[in-house]
Design brief:
Elements lengths: L1 H8 L14 H12 L6 H32 L1 H14 L7 H4 L4 H13 L9 E2 L4 E3 L2 E3 L4 E2 L3 H5 L23 H7 L13 H18 E5 L10 E2 L5 E2 L4 E5 L2
Antiparallel strand pairs: 1-4, 2-3, 5-8, 6-7
Amino acid sequence: MIQKSISETRPNLNEQCAEDSRYLVEYYLNEMKHNATQTMSENDLTIICLDFIAATINSVNSIIEFCLMYLILHPEVQNKLHSELDEVLGSRKIHLTNDKHRLLYLQAVINETIRINTIAPMTATHRCTQHTDFLGYRIPKDTLIFVSIWSLLYDPTVFPEPHQFNPDRFISVDTKEQEKQTMFLPFGTGKRICPGDQLTKQILLVYLSTLLQSYSVHRVSEDPLPDTRAQAGFVNSPKPFRVILRERT
């Protein structure tokens, strides 16, 4: 699939700079064409695209499962979400460009799901490039550093009652709003941010809006309540649980 995209894009490259490209494959091929760098290849482009897909699929699967779990545990959140979808979308499908900024509560539910069950509790490895003094600590050059995303997203000074599932924390405006946005880094930050960051968020909006427009989710009455503690893997995921999907009328 990726190689087909490369083959179809290659003959249609524009003569302008790479910044005028419309999407990643075109950007990369334009950069190769105009800069003639020895460090870029179509094989590397294929691997980069595979990384995007792998990171996105694993993250999306786990986040959707966690989201359904919390909608079961908090039916009032699901009711509020259904009301927003009915008001903004009605029976039509989501148009990301026009609708994503109007689906504030859906985005809040997604953010809170990602916050309370951090998919990747630690960032990728970073390296200190020079001797650094930080908060009274001396960090030698070339020290490997891991940032605890979990500790940021559970900081009670930024996210009060962090163990409580509360999507409203992402739509209420208060004096800590800027700090909250600064500390909400579920995919990391900087040059080493997860490459699937934006793609994951867009897919979640499409999948969850489409699913919840047509269905409501319910727990199986004879089953125990789902366990919200994550199980570790390539990314964190929920322990197995069952749901009932009921068609909305």
